[in-house]
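Researcher: Here's my situation. A collaborator sent me these components and asked whether they could plausibly form a single complex. I don't have experimental data yet, so a predicted model of the whole assembly would be a useful starting point for our discussion.
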Amino acid sequence: MNATPGKDAVLEVHAQNRAISSLLSSLPGSIQDAKFDCNELTLAIDKDQIRAACEIVQTAGYNFLVDVTCVDWYPSEPRFQVTYHILSHTLKERIRLVALVDSIDPSVDSITPVWPSANFYEREVWDLFGVRFHGHPNLRRIMMPDEWEGHPLRKDYPVEGYR
Amino acid sequence: MTEFVGTSTLIAPRPAEGSKDTTMVVNMGPQHPSTHGVLRLVIEIDGETVLKVVPDVGYLHTGIEKTCEAKFYQQVVPLTDRIDYLSPLTNNLVYCLAVEKLLQIEIPPRAQWIRVLLNELTRLNSHLVWLGTHALDIGAMTVFFYTFREREEILRIFEHVSGQRMMTSYFRVGGLALEPPIDLFSWIQKFIKTLPEKINEYQNLLTGNPIWINRLKGIGHLSPENAIALGVTGPPARASGIDWDLRRDMPYSSYEKFQFKVPISHDCDVWARFILRMEEMRESVKICQQALDGMPEGDVKADAPKVVLPDREKMKTQMESLIYHFKIVTEGFAVPAGQVYQAVEGAHGEIGYYVVSDGTAKPYRVHMRYPSFATLQALQTMCEGRLIADVVAIIGSIDIMLGEIDR
């Protein structure tokens, strides 16, 4: 296994990337980590700056929010990795932003003001992972019934036995 | 949680307290035939005019994403069939491409071309069902019988190639399940030769029909800005003038070797989506023809013994193949740690699989991004201010698929 290049190396190689250059100039310090793996660029963004970062990425030409989802890294901390897949129609490129959220009061700013399509995606993440989105207009469960207890896609959710 | 319960920004606010309340809230579905499954819409109407549409989904939620985490990588393939049950092979394709990207294995050209060929047949299958049910919703029953006649032929081809009519699971990680039967290509050739004529026949049944025109033209307007803001992809986005098709713009599985047009319309209404899908069907036939004409020879499985199941013959005669077979079946195959997102152009729009691996034989997380889930958010924008009967036409035009919304 080759050692994966660190943050600085990735940022240097991809300095021409529109998202990276505009994030570095407009929001310095927001990029916590950067990875380039399987031809996909992943930027870890400070969770308090995710909405601002999305706005900057949007103006940089990444105009289409494809997906918002989450990965549960239980039991390690920060536990939740909220993942944003963003596509650029003009550059024909994708970028993945991730925000790491810890398990005590898991919450992150909603990006619905930037992309209204995040509405359903964020509801799904809230429903299945229990990550709350500040400023979401209608954060209700979407897949599970309203009175459901627990968040099924969490890794510590029991998968067998009686409820 | 009360601070999070409120009305969506995309939904018009209710009349203020004390004002004369002339509106009525009606339930459409989950058993309404035009909702194509179990979609429930809570519609606020003023007379016949729709003020607000709130989709309520989740009736078909089966937790496939959670199930995937308990399966080996190769066992996830049959689960993907059941998500969008009208285009099973497209779902197989996108999952296999995602895992192959993590494994970094090369797929032989023949397997890639057969994947393209069957993927386009799947698109035809999905569009034929869409056309039949859409016309049935509007009241033109005849088309349904015509399109299901052709669809039956496609299902027979699927049965011939994979043994199953609907839940095919024919694409595997590393190639195809097995070499296709010898008479498959001549059968497909015979089928697609007659299809363009039949597509013309459907269009003749509908395009000149004054009722059909009145029900479709100018209904369900969706501007390109709204389409991007609301995450709409596929035919509804292209009917709103967004020139984007993953097959052409970010090609996968050797789509770059095929010549085809991407139909675009700027009319932004239900009619545009109807015409556009008819054009797409013609283009799919062309891609099928090219795939048949230039079908390469060779293997249909990648040279990756630790991932791909060996041939039965080899397994019975060679010790090494027997060991690999035993290991793959009992322990699965380990996939290097990492995360990938792979998207393909499905019949309804962009299907994307986000696979996270932690280095073991079971996926750590599989997330499916399905187009209907996003397109459903645009329903309010399209229905607002229209008549309640138009809601049926609009749902038909976005080709809703509840299996992929609820997953």
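Model: Some features of this prediction you could bring to your collaborator: Chain A touches chain B through 40 residues (CB under 8 Å). Chain A has a mean pLDDT of 86.
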